[in-house]
Amino acid sequence: MNSATEGIELVLDDPGLQALREAARLSPDNLPLRRHLAEQLLTRGYLADAEAEFRAALVLAPQDADVTAGLAEAFVRQSAYGAALSALEPFLAAPGYPPRLGIVAARALLGEGETSKAAYRYHEAVSRDPSVADSELESRMTIPAVAPSGPPAPVHAPLEEKPGEVERSKLTFADVAGMDAVKESLRIKLLLPIQQPELFAAYGKRAGGGVLLYGPPGAGKTHLARAAAGELGASFVDVGLADILDMYVGSSERNLRATFDLARRNRPCVLFFDEVDALAARRSDMRQAHTRQLVNQFLAELDGVDQNANEGVLVLAATNAPWYIDGAFRRPGRFDQMVFVPPPDAAARAAILRILCRDKPLAEMDFDAVARATEQMVGADLKGVVDRAVEVKLQQSISAGRPIPMSTADLLAAAKGTRPTAVREWLATARNYVLHANESGAWDELMPWIKAK
What we know:
This protein is an alpha/beta fold. The protein has four domains: 3-141, Tetratricopeptide repeat domain (Serine Threonine Protein Phosphatase 5, Tetratricopeptide repeat, Alpha Horseshoe); 166-340, P-loop containing nucleotide triphosphate hydrolases (Rossmann fold, 3-Layer(aba) Sandwich), CATH 3.40.50.300; 346-416, Orthogonal Bundle (Helicase, Ruva Protein, domain 3), CATH 1.10.8; 423-452, no CATH class. The protein contains 21 helices and six strands. The chain has a six-stranded mixed β-sheet, sandwiched between helices. It is globular, with a radius of gyration of 25 Å.
């Protein structure tokens, strides 16, 4: 008898679970009942059955975080770590996700051998809600020190510093569709001081500084940062959270310092921090001293030990949630310029589609028509549209034995089956801040765009 059959028979032998399952069968649209049944199955170890019930509950409530956490937990216990992370990904990409999801993600990442990423997810979740702490999970993320003689290594022992890698970006602003106002802001703030140093020196302006790019997910902030580095011919260092955050107290600060030192040794250099709200969150929201210390270290690195320390280092940061960033980062000399990266308008969407399709076999295309059919889609969504159309065309070409050009109709068909990812949800959050929490005027740049929507 296989394990799946054994699980079903054991369930049927349990009167309580049998009654719950019968009730769910009679009332299939009762979400609380299905969720309760799934959780009971998970608690008692009937993992395949729990997975099936969580899936059924998700059909009723696709955005339910608790159901998603339960499904991911069922995956983790079955060693399906990739499936667990895929289920959690839409929630983890948004700021302020329920801490329980971070704990489940940590278990999945640990199962895949991603100890550093697991430690980040775990400590980030516990810093927001200490009640989700799991000592057994935490102990599995601790790398034991091998010390056959002498005193044991201290808990705060530093790990090896791990700055990012220096790249040379091949992108330029010509590869960025639309965003003319954004590109001009970056040109004046970051590029021209290095390209025309004598002119800026005459006015006492030095090459270097920081710009915070913000806007909805997928709007092209990372793409824009790479293009800025390519436009300048500068080194580019793409800093991810895993490059900085570490489970040992003090190691995250050392990693951050090493990253800035790397940029200073390779100037002119564009230093890019994605998801910077995780490194620069408001200190008033933090419950643990070591996370506040990381923010202090970040501020100190932006200031530099003297006025020339960061000359030639252009610091770009991107976030979907600028309202969660500590106000100290917006002071002069730090991220003193905030640049809104909006979702592309119709003209920009058409330009993005032209760039995405420029190396593919094409019939006569009406990109403007496709742009009109992709309202509220960002660059990432449009790439998905093109990828889907290409997949269909590839199947047709394989059957025909020759390349068949892609047409406007192909893109329109792919667009019809694609939903915008996150602009609507981001817009709702942004509107709340612009209309109800803008006493300082920080979100004035957003006001016209919000009112237009």
